[in-house]
């Protein structure tokens, strides 16, 4: 692929971020499975086991992101968004045909594949916007990952509000909306997701803009939680429903106010200096970027064809002494995927992340059954609490880790270990089944589950670079479906069914339904805590080098 031209100017990165907010909400369409799974079960005559297997397809499709991870270095972002839109349209379109019985006797395997294809659109959407924005804001990786992952976290509430208020709880209308509406939104916005010249790290307005974006996302999340709870307790007339949805849309486009402000009230031009070398930096470290022109070259290098020179030509040149043999990358440099998987830090991060997110998704997948087993008939509020705290965890992890990594050069994985300790407490609260602990435990688990995502994304970009960030982070994301399979399907589901059979019912009631599961998951998080602590100790010198001056340092290794 030819080298992409970066969009110059101070506004384009912020326009892209505002567009990314909508696409990230679109990338949360897999969270809608509980809203139409009952329709699939009743209309198609499926049993509960078949519905559960469809849920596995939902998780597999959402997290199978290796292909978009590879493609993000070969094709421009709009191409990935186009592929995602096509997958979304045909996948959900086929499921809609099955639910409305427009096409009857659809084979179960085809339905499974359709759901996998539909939710795989999330991987293409998410990879395109996350990789592009991480490269457009290379000095604020934690903040960017927190914001974008946070909007994915609240997407479930956005869809729930649309489903209950605009679509009147119709599963067929929801599927049609996902097939046409989501695809159309991404097609319209794909032009704005493009590689841009990064804003200056020394510009104080960048920090203010991020705070505004974070505040607007918190306002949106709070509004969604309140509106969802009200819609479950109060019946709204049509006009009020439309007003509520209109307010939601206004809050969703709020980040667009940043480039609008920059257009109406342009700032005085300043020299775009990303960072200045510190005199106390060891001479053994890689050269550092010191000007905006170098920054443009650095970011542009992400999109170069890595196979421009053949390995044979390089070997010949080395033999003739024309070039030196390229040194192996060090942590903080740009790694290829095959180089990253040879590092112990890679696998420490993968296992720590997989154990944390796998135990968290087990609670999410079984939250309705957990609530019912403990005497909560309507679990909507419980789901809303988990969703809101999940969002807070994702957003807060990015902001808090960014602050301390700059102030104390504290590795981001420190917060992964802290939150997994809190998850242990949450699982013990679940297992105790004491009065008043259900919502507290759910809030703790939701927040800590969200933290795992944002920390993993930013850490991967810092340890292994941004050039191959897409494929490396995509491999990390495989911990999600693997954890769901191990802990949710094989552990929680089997123990639940065993206890239910003892009670002579298909539905289990009482604390024993999940008690052993919670105790096992507490032990799992204990192992994850130990691994993340080991990783934190190992990578502390890397962060001391990367953030020695209080600002992230970009090495030139990708350009050499």
TrEMBL record:
Gene3D superfamilies: MFS general substrate transporter like domains. One of its GO terms (cellular component) is membrane. The chain crosses the membrane at residues 12-31, 78-97, 109-131, 143-162, 174-193, 205-230, 242-260, 346-368, 380-401, 413-432, 438-460, 472-496, 516-537. Residues 13-260 form the Nodulin-like domain. This is Nodulin-like domain-containing protein. It comes from the Eukaryota. InterPro entries: MFS_trans_sf, NFD4_C, Nodulin-like. It is found in: Membrane. The keyword Transmembrane applies. It is a multi-pass membrane protein. It comes from Vicia faba. Keywords: Membrane, Transmembrane, Transmembrane helix. Residues 341-543 form the NFD4 C-terminal domain.
